[in-house]
Amino acid sequence: MQRICVIGGSRYFGKLLVQRLLAAGHRVTVINRGSVPPPPGAEHLVVDRDDEAALVAALGSRAFDVVVDQVCYTPVQARAAVRAFAGRTRRYVMTSTIEVYDPATAALPAAAPHTPVPEERVDPAAWPVRTDLPWDDAAYRDAHYGEGKRQAESVLTRDGRFAFASVRSAHVLGGGAREFTGRLAYYTDRLVRGAEIDVFARELPTVFIHYEELADLLLWAATATAFTGPLNACSDGLLDVRGLAAVLAAEAGREPVYRTVAPGEPAGPFSFDRYYAMSNTRAKELGFVFSRTTGWLPGAAAESITASTTPAA
Questions:
Q1: Closest CA to 44 of 57, 34, 53, 55
Q2: Alpha carbon distance, N-terminus to C-terminus of the chain
C-alpha cells in the first residue's frame, strides 16, 4: 500500500486511474476544485491548485509516496507544485503530451524523416523556461499547450527536490461520451451525417492510446517502477487520419467523404501535415506491454458512434 496524491483525476483516464489505485489497495488523496467528487474511498481536498497558499494550507501535514499531477499545464504551476510538495513526496509523476514534439510549435532538433520520435528529442533539462509569459490567461495557455507542457517538465526536472517522471501521452481515445475533448466525435458526427471530413493533401501518421491503457500506464508509473525523465506512452502502430476514418466508417456502415483543405487552411483534429509520431521503445524496455491500436480502435469507434447517435436526455 502506498500513499498516492492525484491532482485532477476527476474525469476520463484520471478518474479511472483513481479507481484502479483504490482497487489495488492504495491510499488515495484527490485534489481538485470540487466540481466532481472523487470515486468512493478517496480522500478529497477541494482547492484550486493555482492558489498556492490555499493548496499548502489544504495539504496540512500530509505526505505522500507519489504525486500524480494530471493538470499541470504551465511552468508557473510547476514551480508552485515544487514549493508545495517539496518534503512531502519522494516521487512526482506529471501527465504530459505528444504535443511537446510538434515542430510547428517550437524550434526542435532535426529528426530523421518518418522515424518515430524518441524522448531525447525534447530534453526538459535543457529547455528554456519563461515564467514571465501570460500563463494565467486561459486563451494564451490553450494556444501554447505544447510549450506550456515543455516548460512545466523543465521546471520539475531541474528542481531536484524529488524524483520526477513525465508521461508523454499520445492522442487518447475510447470511452464514448467520456472522451470529452470531442476530437473523435468530430469524425463520427460527420460520418453519420454524410458531411465532409477536412484533410490535408498529404496526411502523415500519428499515434494513439486507449484511455484504459493510459490509466494502466500511469498506475504502473506511480506504483511499480522508479524511472525518471520523460516516457512516451502510445499503443503500437501508426495511423493517419484516413486510416482512422476507415475504421470509423466500417463501424458506421458509411463511406467517408473527404475535402482537401487549401494550403494554410486547418484540417480536422487528427490531421497532420508534419511528422512527430512517438516511439514507445523506452517504456517497453522498462517493462510496460502495449496493445495495438488496431485491436482496440474498432470498439472505441463503436462507442463514439453510439454516443453520436444517442439523443440527449
A1: 34
A2: 41
In this prediction the pTM is: 0.94
Stated as kind and residue range, the H or E segment containing 66 is strand 64-69
With vertex at residue 171, the alpha carbon angle to CA 67 and CA 104, rounded to the nearest 5 degrees, is 105
Residues in the chain, overall count: 313
Which grid cell is 244? 482512422
C-alpha cell, 202: 498529404
H or E segment at 97? strand 89-97
Provide the 10 A C-beta neighbour count for residue 109. 9
Under 8 Å between Cβ of 223 and 274: no
Q: Name the grid cell of 43.
A: 480522500
Give bridge partners of residue 73 from the DSSP assignment.
none
- What type of residue is 157? T
pLDDT in tens, 37-88: 899 999 999 999 999 999 999 999 999 999 999 999 999 999 999 999 999 9
